[in-house]
UniProtKB/TrEMBL annotation:
Upper classification of the organism: Bacteria, Pseudomonadati, Bacteroidota, Chitinophagia, Chitinophagales
Cleavable signal peptide: none
Organism annotation: Chitinophaga agri
Keyword Membrane on entry: no
Record's protein name: SDR family oxidoreductase
Similarity annotation: Belongs to the short-chain dehydrogenases/reductases (SDR) family.
Residues in Ketoreductase domain copies: 6-183
Gene3D superfamilies for this protein: NAD(P)-binding Rossmann-like Domain
Alphabetical list of InterPro entries matching this protein: KR_dom, NAD(P)-bd_dom_sf, Sc_DH/Rdtase_CS, SDR_fam
Keywords: Oxidoreductase
Keyword Transmembrane in annotation: no
Length: 249
């Protein structure tokens, strides 16, 4: 698990799964920069993470801000070794009520921003001969037909396709691209979706062989593995971390 002198960016790192990923990185000596829109939340998270961390406030849906932010990070820290594309937004709406604007807003943050940020980081890695790692965060929604989340489902399906295409193109240059697809994880976002819909929560747990929700730290551990040299021959995979939900019945 060699992580010496590595620097990582984790988007959406101020809370939930993103913060758990950042915590796993910091515990293993990876200097971690968390990115998000809520400056106060990021500052609190940085205090929690300690001296081996930093934060940048950025709305990733503003595509023009992404290259500027990446250049600022490089100028201040010198290099970017690991990128975790974790930031994402969801929307629960009936299919016929989703407007074009709703759909595009989800794709802008969950897909287009992921592409734009990855492109800027990869440019830097290629120019400097960095054997980098990019880890995209998908969702089991990409595997299932879940009602009332059409835009989110489309976005996460796109992320898994992008992961494979990026891995094929970039792995020859020593840049590994992988994806983690969390199952039902106990976060504020999942609580909103499940606690207000007892039938949905019962269905989710009923088909999960392990019988309980996962913890954000479970995703952090999986991402740490993929980011480390322990996974140096792993690229283009979509790793399901779901307590067996994908195979449960």
């Amino acid at each position: 698990m060699n992580t010496t002198n590595k620097l990582a960016i984790v988007t959406g790192g101020g809370s939930g799964i993103g913060l758990a990923i950042a915590e796993a990185f910091v515990r293993n000596g990876i200097y971690t920069i968390i990115i998000g829109r809520d400056e106060e939340k990021l500052r609190r998270a940085c205090q929690q993470l300690g001296a081996c961390s930093d934060c940048y406030t950025c709305d990733l849906s503003d595509l023009q801000a992404i290259p500027v932010m990446v250049q600022e990070i490089i100028q201040q820290h010198g290099h970017i070794d690991i990128l975790v594309n974790n930031a994402g937004i969801n929307m629960k709406k009936s299919f016929v009520d989703v407007t074009d604007e709703d759909f595009q807003a989800i794709l802008q943050t969950n897909v287009t921003a992921v592409f734009a940020l990855s492109r800027e980081v990869v440019k830097h890695q290629l120019e400097n001969g960095i054997k980098g790692v990019i880890i995209n965060i998908s969702s089991m929604a990409s595997q299932y037909g879940i009602p009332k989340v059409i835009a989110y489902t489309a976005s996460k399906s796109a992320i898994e396709g992008m992961t494979k295409a990026m891995a094929t193109e970039l792995s020859p240059y020593g840049i590994r691209i992988n994806c983690v697809a969390p199952g039902f994880i106990a976060t504020d976002m999942s609580a909103k979706a499940l606690d207000a819909d007892p039938d949905r929560k019962s269905k989710a747990l009923g088909r999960t062989p392990m019988g309980h929700l996962g913890q954000p730290a479970d995703i952090g551990a999986a991402v740490l593995f993929l980011a480390s040299d322990a996974a140096k021959y792993v690229t283009g995979v979509v790793l399901q971390v779901d307590g067996g939900n994908a195979v449960g019945f």
